[in-house]
Amino acid sequence: MQRNFLTTERVCRYYRRGTHVVRAVDDVTFTLHKGEFLGIVGASGSGKSTLLNLLAGIDTATSGRIFFEKIPLDALARRKLAVYRARRIGMIFQSFNLLPHHTALGNVELALYFNNTPHRERKKRAIEILERLGLSDRIDHKPADLSGGEQQRVAIARALVKKPEILLADEPTGNLDRENTGQIAELLTEFNHDGLAVIIVTHDIELASRCAGRILKMHYGRIVEEISGPGKEGNL
């Protein structure tokens, strides 16, 4: 039996641009199941990144509701919403968003700082995840001394060191070459096999098809098609 994990019900996000109303997300309903790898694909401006920000609780829906394990995000107080983002959700982006004056280890440790994780435990967990991602010899390097693929792996380590239940990936390979794109796809699939639920938004249908068990296509803020991918289906 599939377990509903993250659900949207007729979610809309509208905003004004002068006198024009932009329907960035328009009447979107879908469910992410526990342990599923879901792809959301669409061209630039299709609303997929806006949708991801809504799922993360970074942005607020104009109408409709989002539920995490049956709890509506809009009913959470600001503090509890921050806890949801800090503990339940991991995020990675096209731009790596690493702090330039911190080492790889420092960047990853920082994700645990706001969880009040003790320093010794922060360092231990950060080293473990960096080693798992093949960065044991890059731990003391700063972002400027890392390749694009290495920087993205540090960003993934930063997202995963919290041991989140859902990973939200916003164009995570957009700045990478084909070889590094393949490596990142393999890493995300590996962690999904370990039980991590993943949502990847991308313009690259080939990438989504390689990883995801299910793909939603977006166009002008709406889901216009749902297709099955060859990737791992959600845990049943």
Describe the structure.
- There is one protein chain.
- Helix content is 33%, strand content 30%.
- It has seven helices and ten strands.
- Residues 232-236 have low confidence and may be disordered.
- Strands 6-7-8-3-9-10 form a six-stranded mixed β-sheet, with helices on both faces. Strands 2-1-4-5 form a four-stranded antiparallel β-sheet, with helices on one face.
- It is globular and about 50 Å long.
- By secondary structure, the chain is α/β, with parallel strands linked by helices.
- The N and C termini lie close together (5 Å).
- Helix 3 packs parallel to helix 5 and helix 5 runs parallel beside helix 6.
- It has a single domain (4-228), classed as 3-Layer(aba) Sandwich (Rossmann fold).
- The longest helix has 16 residues, at 178-193.
- It has helices spanning 48-55, 78-88, 104-113, 119-132, 148-160, 178-193, 205-211, and strands at residues 4-17, 20-33, 37-41, 63-68, 71-72, 89-93, 166-170, 197-202, 214-219, 222-228.
Kindly list the characteristics that best describe this protein.
single chain; 236 residues; alpha/beta; Rossmann fold; six-stranded mixed sheet; four-stranded antiparallel sheet; 7 helices; 10 strands
